[in-house]
Design brief:
By secondary structure, this protein is an alpha/beta fold. It contains 14 helices and 11 strands. The relative contact order is 0.17. The N terminus is likely disordered. The structure holds flavin mononucleotide.
Length: 446
């Protein structure tokens, strides 16, 4: 795959920013704030915040997704738009910002996924990205008439799934649709590639029923941080979305990932590592801390516990909430997140209650509470300290949380030369500094 950076060597390295968009905010109680406009089905709100991110020159808007619902889930996850449908609508009211949607390799078909993202890439003029996830929660199987595969098998499926999708995206040469009225030739039969994939999990003949898309391949994002997750990212991804608690942890993930990228013969600089982070901004540290305290006050422990238990993959009903987190066997569900939260509790000596509140605020992502300068300093330290190539910004609630970030933090990053002041190109590949790939040779894996 061609993923050489197109930027000249002399160009200063700049960070990439994604807006992690959730209609009811990221803090579990964000929607209760008097200034919050909550609603995952509120298209007007989603349109406005996406346009705010575009005006601030963000690389992309990012939509997570799940395929289940529960009344005690995080409010942004009880109900939400199907991501590709939402992004197709957002494509019509934006011009430059990248459009990233999550789609599962465990509960989907490569042909559907390839077709949907190629379609979005055409509709948006080259701004589509697929966040490849393997789906952690076993209860998802209840909606799909099949059994939930184990962690490592989910990744084995994902490896083959992504290869098939990329192969399907190369079904047609870029100039295959000649539409020659004189000769009566719409699509040149010499310019079609039949994938003919016969693998362990998928048999897919092809070709895909849509021309090769503006980016050649829509951008591949990968989210899932265990060893097999990192290998998938290292072999295939352009962007890695991750959750890291502190700079030391982020540096070690970053080094491990980049080493794996090199191990697959790829340029480590061609893969951008973007941790999520949740900024709580005030004019003073005291004001920012009070803002977080207020949000935490609206979080009953009964609504925080399911979020923690879900991430640990174990019930904590028989333990004292004000006691330490017990030693629990590693869960197959969200393995990397369970490890991260356990390490956090041990490092900071948190009780179960305190850990649950942390998860309710940022779900295990890094949180920065302080002034705009504190936030910019922390981002700069991670970016320059080998911990991140950019960030997926997670406002605690909308639209104010994003407005504060865009008004106060983005100008500081721009003044420091750390973030663009104008888009240099029109596609998401351009924003990420990645060349458009030519068609790949099919990957054989029998
Ligand atoms: C930062 C991050 C974001 C994720 N976002 C999603 C998501 O939106 N939807 C989903 O089904 N799974 C999501 N996942 C779950 C992964 O796809 C994967 O199933 C899970 O993390 C277990 O794999 P791991 O142990 O490799 O992390 C995410 C994982 C991470 C680390």
């Amino acid at each position: 795959m061609t993923t050489d950076r197109t930027k000249p060597d002399a160009a200063p390295r700049q960070m990439h920013l994604g807006l992690f968009l959730q209609g009811a905010g990221h803090h579990v109680s964000g929607w209760r704030h008097p200034n919050a406009e909550a609603g995952s089905e509120n298209f007007d709100l989603l349109r406005r915040v996406t346009q705010t991110a575009e005006a601030a020159k963000f690389d992309m808007v990012f939509l997570a997704d799940g395929l289940t619902s529960a009344v005690d889930a995080h409010p942004s996850m009880i109900a939400r738009f199907e991501p590709l449908t939402l992004l197709s609508a957002l494509a019509m009211v934006t011009e430059r910002i990248g459009l990233a949607a999550t789609a599962s390799t465990t509960y989907g078909e490569p042909y559907h996924v390839a077709r949907a993202f190629a379609s979005l890439d055409h509709l948006s003029g080259g701004r589509a990205a697929w966040n490849v996830v393997t789906t952690s929660y076993a209860r998802t199987a209840n909606n799909f008439s099949k059994a939930h595969p184990a962690h490592d098998e989910r990744y084995a499926v994902a490896e083959e799934f992504v290869d098939v999708v990329c192969g399907l995206w190369d079904s047609w040469d870029d100039d295959a649709f000649v539409k020659d009225k004189t000769r009566g030739v719409y699509a040149d039969p010499a310019k079609v590639r039949i994938l003919d994939h016969a693998g362990r999990y998928f048999n897919v003949k092809g070709p895909l029923n849509i021309p090769r898309s503006p980016q050649g391949h829509p951008i591949l994002i990968q989210a899932g941080s265990s060893g097999p997750g990192q290998d998938l990212a290292a072999r295939r991804a352009d962007v890695v979305f991750t959750a890291q608690q502190d700079i030391a942890e982020a540096q070690s993930f970053y080094a491990s990932l980049k080493q794996r990228v090199a191990g697959f013969g790829r340029d480590p600089a061609s893969v951008a590592v973007m941790p999520g982070f949740l900024p709580v901004i005030g004019r003073t540290l005291k004001e920012a801390s009070a803002k977080l305290f207020e949000l935490d006050q609206w979080t009953p422990i009964a609504s925080a516990m399911p979020l923690l238990e879900e991430r640990l993959g174990h019930s904590l009903a028989s333990y004292d909430l004000d006691g330490p987190l017990p030693d629990l066997p590693v869960s197959d569900q969200l393995r990397s997140r369970a490890e991260l939260l356990t390490a956090l509790a041990r490092r900071e000596g948190l009780t179960i209650r305190q850990l649950a509140l942390r998860v309710a605020a940022g779900r295990g992502h890094h949180m920065i509470v302080g002034t705009a300068a504190d936030v910019a300093d922390r981002m700069q330290a991670w970016f320059e300290g080998g911990a991140a190539d950019g960030f997926n910004v997670m406002p605690p609630f909308f639209p104010e949380g994003l407005d504060d970030f865009v008004r106060e933090v983005v100008p500081l990053l721009q003044e420091r030369g750390l973030f663009r002041t104008a888009y240099a190109g029109t596609t998401l590949r351009d924003h990420l500094g990645l060349a458009r790939p030519g068609p790949e040779e099919p990957v054989s894996r029998s």
